[in-house]
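User: Okay, second chain of the day. Same drill as before: sequence in, structure tokens out.
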Amino acid sequence: MRLNHTYDPVLDAAAGGGQGTVRDYYELLKPRVMALVIFTAIVGVFAAPGPIHPWFGFMTILCITVGAGAAGALNMWYDADIDALMKRTAKRPIPSGAILPGEALGFGLTLAAFSIVMMWLVVNLAAAALLAFTIFFYIVIYSMGLKRRTPQNIVIGGAAGAFPPMISWVAVTGHIDLGAISLFLLIFMWTPPHFWALALFREGDYEKAGIPMLPNVYGRAETRKQIMLYTLACLPAAALPALVGVSGLFYSLGAGVLTAMFVWRAFNVYRFSEGGPADLAAKKLFGFSIVWLFAMFALIWIEKLVGLPAFVAVLHG
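Assistant: Same drill. Structure tokens below.
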């Protein structure tokens, strides 16, 4: 019988081994984050110009999925001490005592090696190199280097979550071009308002763990301002896939409506300073931001499945 306890590396080492179930190891992969990774990577395969054999497409998505799970496991290994301090993360497998830190480290490294090598052998070297860099970026640059040191952690670290559709694009084409960058920027510009909205109503958690999120360092007013600015920056990012020929009129119309709604919800966060309305506005923005990103990529995917013409092609007759 396993008893939950606060993460303590000394006690855990003495325990001689975790008692984690398959469910615990599944949670170690950060499945909710993985869902976004898988979906955007699938859209990247469909959006990229040129054909890809279904088997290679499947292996591309599988390798990206396993790589994302590896990054999640390694992140939980490194962040186990601060995860134990936050209400939102205290029940994760390592802080709860289900899985030992060393077990998580070995599990993550094994998955990372498998995903990179398989991507190299089955798909191509360029996609494998970009996948390896993505895992390195998330663990070393973001988790170890940025997360505990700077309130800009989310701005820079957000690149890790933006790479998956670029990786799948490279798996098809063998190179990075404007189309791949346009998909990258959709996620990259979305990340700060998404996570800062969460930080506004989870401010106490981050402060307790000593993570320098923007509200804890520069205050709520500056955070609301930055959320507004970065959401406005999503306007050109949303337009870019259409302008470079990745998407068409169907996407353009849908993206226009969705991004206007995104901006409106960010404005509500900006105008409500304190109290219940401010927290409610932040929660609504956080929830809608997830819908916005999934919907933006879904519009691109639908266009590719239906075979609608690209916006640039329409403009040129």
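Residues 268 and 281 are 6 Å apart (CA to CA).

User: Thanks, on to the next one.
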